[in-house]
Amino acid sequence: MTADTPTILATSGGLRAGTRTNFEFGAMSEYAFELSGVTGRAPRVCFVGTAGGDDPHWITAFYEAALLRGLQMSHLRLFSMPNVEDITAHLLEQDVVWVGGGSVAGLLAMWRLHGVDEAMRTAWEAGVVLTGVSAGSLCWHIGGTTDSFGPTLRPVTNGLALVPYSNGVHYDAEEQRRPLYHRLVEDGTLPAGYATDNFAGLLYRGTEFVEAVSEREGALAYRVELGPDGVVVETELDTRLL
Questions:
Q1: pLDDT given for residue 103 in this prediction
Q2: Active site includes 75?
Q3: Domains of the chain: which residue ranges?
Q4: Cα–Cα 20 to 30 A to 154, which of 4, 76, 141, 142?
Q5: Which of 103, 170, 182, 214 is an active site residue?
Protein backbone atom coordinates (compact mmCIF):
# COMPACT_ATOMS: atom_id res chain seq x y z
CA MET A 1 0.00 0.00 0.00
CA THR A 2 1.19 3.54 -0.73
CA ALA A 3 -0.08 7.04 -0.03
CA ASP A 4 -3.02 8.08 -2.20
CA THR A 5 -1.16 11.18 -3.45
CA PRO A 6 2.56 11.98 -3.80
CA THR A 7 3.67 12.75 -0.25
CA ILE A 8 6.75 14.37 1.29
CA LEU A 9 7.41 14.96 4.98
CA ALA A 10 10.48 17.23 5.06
CA THR A 11 11.92 17.66 8.54
CA SER A 12 14.56 18.93 10.90
CA GLY A 13 13.94 15.94 13.15
CA GLY A 14 12.36 12.51 13.19
CA LEU A 15 14.79 10.77 15.54
CA ARG A 16 15.29 10.71 19.30
CA ALA A 17 17.98 9.31 21.57
CA GLY A 18 17.55 5.61 22.18
CA THR A 19 17.62 3.73 25.46
CA ARG A 20 19.14 0.46 24.18
CA THR A 21 20.04 1.71 20.69
CA ASN A 22 21.80 4.81 19.34
CA PHE A 23 18.46 6.33 18.46
CA GLU A 24 14.79 5.53 18.03
CA PHE A 25 12.22 6.85 15.57
CA GLY A 26 10.45 9.97 16.83
CA ALA A 27 6.92 11.20 16.31
CA MET A 28 7.59 12.65 12.85
CA SER A 29 8.98 9.37 11.56
CA GLU A 30 5.94 7.64 13.02
CA TYR A 31 3.79 10.16 11.15
CA ALA A 32 5.58 9.26 7.91
CA PHE A 33 4.85 5.57 8.51
CA GLU A 34 1.19 6.48 9.14
CA LEU A 35 1.02 8.56 5.95
CA SER A 36 1.97 5.49 3.91
CA GLY A 37 -1.38 3.93 4.81
CA VAL A 38 0.11 0.56 5.78
CA THR A 39 -2.09 -1.65 7.96
CA GLY A 40 -1.83 -5.27 9.02
CA ARG A 41 1.92 -5.64 8.39
CA ALA A 42 5.22 -3.97 9.12
CA PRO A 43 5.94 -0.88 6.99
CA ARG A 44 8.72 -1.32 4.45
CA VAL A 45 11.25 1.48 5.03
CA CYS A 46 14.43 2.18 3.04
CA PHE A 47 17.20 4.24 4.63
CA VAL A 48 19.31 6.33 2.23
CA GLY A 49 22.52 7.63 3.79
CA THR A 50 24.19 9.18 0.73
CA ALA A 51 24.59 12.59 2.39
CA GLY A 52 26.63 10.97 5.17
CA GLY A 53 28.85 9.06 2.76
CA ASP A 54 26.91 5.84 3.36
CA ASP A 55 28.51 5.62 6.80
CA PRO A 56 28.11 1.97 7.90
CA HIS A 57 27.65 3.04 11.53
CA TRP A 58 24.55 5.04 10.54
CA ILE A 59 23.22 2.17 8.46
CA THR A 60 23.69 -0.21 11.40
CA ALA A 61 22.03 2.26 13.77
CA PHE A 62 19.00 2.48 11.48
CA TYR A 63 18.68 -1.29 11.35
CA GLU A 64 18.84 -1.43 15.16
CA ALA A 65 16.12 1.23 15.46
CA ALA A 66 14.03 -0.55 12.83
CA LEU A 67 14.36 -3.88 14.64
CA LEU A 68 13.20 -2.22 17.85
CA ARG A 69 10.24 -0.63 16.04
CA GLY A 70 9.33 -3.75 14.06
CA LEU A 71 9.91 -2.32 10.59
CA GLN A 72 10.84 -4.21 7.45
CA MET A 73 14.07 -2.32 6.81
CA SER A 74 16.36 -2.01 3.81
CA HIS A 75 18.93 0.52 2.67
CA LEU A 76 20.23 2.06 -0.54
CA ARG A 77 24.00 2.46 -0.63
CA LEU A 78 25.92 4.11 -3.48
CA PHE A 79 29.51 3.85 -2.18
CA SER A 80 31.54 2.15 -3.53
CA MET A 81 28.86 0.86 -5.87
CA PRO A 82 25.06 0.62 -5.62
CA ASN A 83 24.04 -2.28 -3.41
CA VAL A 84 20.93 -3.07 -5.49
CA GLU A 85 20.69 -3.94 -9.15
CA ASP A 86 17.67 -1.76 -9.97
CA ILE A 87 17.36 1.37 -7.80
CA THR A 88 13.95 2.38 -9.13
CA ALA A 89 12.49 -1.08 -8.57
CA HIS A 90 13.88 -1.18 -5.04
CA LEU A 91 12.38 2.20 -4.11
CA LEU A 92 9.03 1.24 -5.60
CA GLU A 93 8.91 -1.75 -3.23
CA GLN A 94 9.02 0.59 -0.21
CA ASP A 95 6.30 2.30 1.79
CA VAL A 96 8.64 5.01 3.09
CA VAL A 97 12.05 6.27 2.00
CA TRP A 98 13.98 7.90 4.87
CA VAL A 99 16.91 10.12 3.79
CA GLY A 100 19.60 11.00 6.32
CA GLY A 101 21.52 14.23 6.85
CA GLY A 102 25.00 15.37 5.86
CA SER A 103 26.12 16.98 2.60
CA VAL A 104 23.13 17.80 0.42
CA ALA A 105 25.50 18.94 -2.34
CA GLY A 106 27.23 15.56 -2.29
CA LEU A 107 23.88 13.77 -2.14
CA LEU A 108 22.57 15.57 -5.21
CA ALA A 109 25.74 14.90 -7.20
CA MET A 110 25.77 11.20 -6.37
CA TRP A 111 22.05 10.79 -6.93
CA ARG A 112 22.28 12.32 -10.40
CA LEU A 113 25.34 10.22 -11.23
CA HIS A 114 23.43 7.02 -10.44
CA GLY A 115 19.94 8.07 -11.56
CA VAL A 116 18.56 8.18 -8.03
CA ASP A 117 17.03 11.59 -8.73
CA GLU A 118 14.68 10.11 -11.34
CA ALA A 119 14.12 6.99 -9.24
CA MET A 120 13.00 9.19 -6.33
CA ARG A 121 10.63 11.09 -8.59
CA THR A 122 9.14 7.83 -9.85
CA ALA A 123 8.69 6.53 -6.31
CA TRP A 124 7.14 9.83 -5.17
CA GLU A 125 4.69 9.83 -8.08
CA ALA A 126 3.76 6.23 -7.21
CA GLY A 127 2.86 7.19 -3.63
CA VAL A 128 5.97 6.08 -1.74
CA VAL A 129 6.29 8.52 1.16
CA LEU A 130 9.55 10.49 1.04
CA THR A 131 10.92 11.79 4.32
CA GLY A 132 14.19 12.64 6.02
CA VAL A 133 16.12 15.19 8.03
CA SER A 134 18.31 18.16 7.08
CA ALA A 135 19.85 17.16 3.71
CA GLY A 136 16.95 14.70 3.59
CA SER A 137 14.61 17.70 3.73
CA LEU A 138 16.48 20.15 1.50
CA CYS A 139 16.84 17.66 -1.36
CA TRP A 140 13.13 17.59 -2.24
CA HIS A 141 13.02 21.40 -2.64
CA ILE A 142 14.51 23.79 -5.20
CA GLY A 143 17.26 24.69 -2.74
CA GLY A 144 18.17 26.13 0.62
CA THR A 145 21.05 26.86 2.96
CA THR A 146 23.78 24.30 3.54
CA ASP A 147 27.10 23.67 5.26
CA SER A 148 28.08 21.23 2.49
CA PHE A 149 30.90 23.54 1.40
CA GLY A 150 32.26 24.58 4.79
CA PRO A 151 31.39 26.15 8.15
CA THR A 152 30.22 29.37 6.48
CA LEU A 153 26.81 28.50 5.07
CA ARG A 154 26.16 28.84 1.35
CA PRO A 155 23.16 28.34 -0.92
CA VAL A 156 22.38 25.16 -2.77
CA THR A 157 20.06 25.79 -5.73
CA ASN A 158 19.95 22.49 -7.64
CA GLY A 159 17.60 20.40 -5.51
CA LEU A 160 15.23 17.87 -7.05
CA ALA A 161 12.42 20.47 -7.02
CA LEU A 162 9.71 17.89 -6.41
CA VAL A 163 8.06 20.77 -4.55
CA PRO A 164 8.47 24.29 -6.00
CA TYR A 165 9.79 25.99 -2.87
CA SER A 166 13.01 26.68 -1.04
CA ASN A 167 13.73 25.20 2.37
CA GLY A 168 15.48 26.29 5.54
CA VAL A 169 16.47 23.62 8.07
CA HIS A 170 17.75 23.83 11.68
CA TYR A 171 16.26 27.31 11.69
CA ASP A 172 16.47 27.89 15.44
CA ALA A 173 19.65 25.92 16.09
CA GLU A 174 22.33 27.53 13.89
CA GLU A 175 22.69 31.30 13.94
CA GLN A 176 23.64 31.67 10.26
CA ARG A 177 20.52 29.91 8.98
CA ARG A 178 17.80 32.55 9.36
CA PRO A 179 19.68 35.66 8.12
CA LEU A 180 21.18 33.84 5.14
CA TYR A 181 17.85 32.32 4.15
CA HIS A 182 16.22 35.75 4.32
CA ARG A 183 18.99 37.29 2.21
CA LEU A 184 18.82 34.56 -0.44
CA VAL A 185 15.05 34.91 -0.82
CA GLU A 186 15.34 38.69 -0.89
CA ASP A 187 17.99 38.75 -3.65
CA GLY A 188 16.22 36.09 -5.73
CA THR A 189 18.81 33.35 -5.32
CA LEU A 190 16.07 31.22 -3.79
CA PRO A 191 12.30 31.36 -4.29
CA ALA A 192 9.86 31.70 -1.42
CA GLY A 193 9.64 28.68 0.81
CA TYR A 194 9.37 27.12 4.24
CA ALA A 195 11.73 26.75 7.19
CA THR A 196 11.72 24.41 10.18
CA ASP A 197 13.13 24.62 13.68
CA ASN A 198 14.77 21.48 14.98
CA PHE A 199 12.06 18.86 15.66
CA ALA A 200 9.60 20.47 13.20
CA GLY A 201 8.52 19.30 9.75
CA LEU A 202 6.54 20.17 6.61
CA LEU A 203 3.93 17.98 4.95
CA TYR A 204 3.39 18.29 1.21
CA ARG A 205 0.70 16.52 -0.80
CA GLY A 206 1.63 16.69 -4.44
CA THR A 207 3.31 20.07 -4.79
CA GLU A 208 1.10 21.79 -2.21
CA PHE A 209 2.06 22.56 1.37
CA VAL A 210 -0.53 21.00 3.70
CA GLU A 211 0.59 21.49 7.28
CA ALA A 212 3.47 22.05 9.67
CA VAL A 213 4.04 19.49 12.42
CA SER A 214 6.31 19.19 15.44
CA GLU A 215 7.52 16.48 17.78
CA ARG A 216 8.57 18.91 20.52
CA GLU A 217 6.66 21.73 22.22
CA GLY A 218 7.80 25.10 20.88
CA ALA A 219 9.41 23.80 17.67
CA LEU A 220 7.86 25.77 14.81
CA ALA A 221 7.78 26.16 11.04
CA TYR A 222 7.69 29.35 8.99
CA ARG A 223 6.73 30.71 5.58
CA VAL A 224 9.44 32.97 4.12
CA GLU A 225 8.61 35.12 1.09
CA LEU A 226 9.02 38.53 -0.46
CA GLY A 227 6.51 41.15 0.63
CA PRO A 228 5.00 43.67 -1.80
CA ASP A 229 7.77 46.16 -0.95
CA GLY A 230 10.51 43.69 -1.84
CA VAL A 231 11.40 43.01 1.79
CA VAL A 232 11.35 39.47 3.15
CA VAL A 233 8.38 38.57 5.30
CA GLU A 234 8.58 35.64 7.74
CA THR A 235 5.28 34.22 8.95
CA GLU A 236 5.08 31.76 11.81
CA LEU A 237 2.86 28.85 10.79
CA ASP A 238 0.34 26.99 12.90
CA THR A 239 2.44 23.98 13.84
CA ARG A 240 0.61 20.90 15.08
CA LEU A 241 2.24 19.00 17.92
CA LEU A 242 2.23 15.30 17.09
A1: 98
A2: no
A3: 7-241
A4: 76
A5: 170
